[in-house]
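Notes to self after the Tuesday call (sharing in case useful).
The group wants a holo model before anyone commits to mutagenesis around the pocket. I volunteered. Ligand is NAI. Logging inputs and output together so the record is complete.
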Amino acid sequence: MKRPFRIAVTGAAGSISNSLLFRLAAGEVFGTDQPIILQLIERSEAMEALRGLAMELEDCAFPLLHAVRLHDNPEDGFRNVHFAFLIGAKPRGPGMERADLLAANAEIFSRQGRALNDHANPDVKVLVVGNPANTNALIASRNAPDLSPSQFTAMSRLDHNRAKGMIANRTGFNTADIRKVAVWGNHSASQFPDVRNAEAMGEPIWPGLDHDWVDNTFIPRVQKRGAEIIDARGQSSAASAAQGAIDHMRDWYMGTPEGDFVSMCIVSDGSYGIAKGIVFSFPVRCRYGRYQIVQGLPIDDAAQKRLDATEKELLEEKDAVKHLLPAETEDAHNN
Ligand code: NAI
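Result:
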């Protein structure tokens, strides 16, 4: 029997976690022979709801789930964890400006970064889902000076999956046949979903696509899909966000399929001219628990404009929280 992985999930009583936790316990991320211990973290106000969720997990009698621990603080919750899903975040309240939202979350994620630094396993892999995810990941990473920045990632996999789904619908292929979709930049409406290198059953799809449709329908639809879902169901994406989190962590840990790549928000090493140090979504390949940016993809003028716009937004977000960013350490981009 393998030794259990310790997995922390913050915001564990929330909607995304409700979809995620049962699938984690069923072995969908780390394999069906890998036992796990769940270390669930919530605000003290939500501990009662979390206790209810823990009872349900127990009632599933998952063979891989060795223990469930409940915590109302990140210092205890992150103790010895190998993987951390940072899902809990402060939502935007009425009348709240973007800067207020950034500042409120900066406090949460700087404390969580310090707690990971001091208490987690030194090889911990961190996925930030809570919004604004890229900048939250940046803050957590910068508050964890003993960990490599490459251990901190944020989620653009939901955007990646959305792009793949829309392209499959458009071309009539199955999603399993579509490869090499990429999402660049921020997990926000400025992101750049890119299908210029995409393939269906190994053949390039770009020559057969209507480029007006790509520019005027596909790209804005992926960018605004989150808002479209909120309008339709009155709540933000939950099950599909959990799916994105599962896919992100599974591929990081298990590796990406041969001949494909995925999108992950990671600390920029300057590839494609993107400012070093911001957390930016790149196409990556994963192997042996590490990721590498896919190099050499062609960037034409139109694509460059889109990269510039999303990079600018991330630099502005970084500027808005600069007082919470401790001095930058040398970029250790060797995850
Ligand atoms: P939710 O409101 O259902 O749950 C959030 C939970 O986090 C709540 O139970 C709350 O008590 C908890 N929480 C808040 N602050 C916390 C803290 N400091 N420590 C521990 N727990 C804390 O929200 P939902 O739907 O689960 O979404 C969570 C986050 O994920 C939101 O920020 C949302 O915007 C973001 N999101 C990100 C996506 C992405 O693609 N990156 C996609 C969809 C949502």
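Two things stood out.
Residues 42 and 72 are 5 Å apart (CA to CA).
Residues 10-11, 13-17, 41-43, 46, 87-91, 108, 129-131, 133, 155, 158, 187, 236-238, 241, 244 surround NAI (CB under 6 Å).
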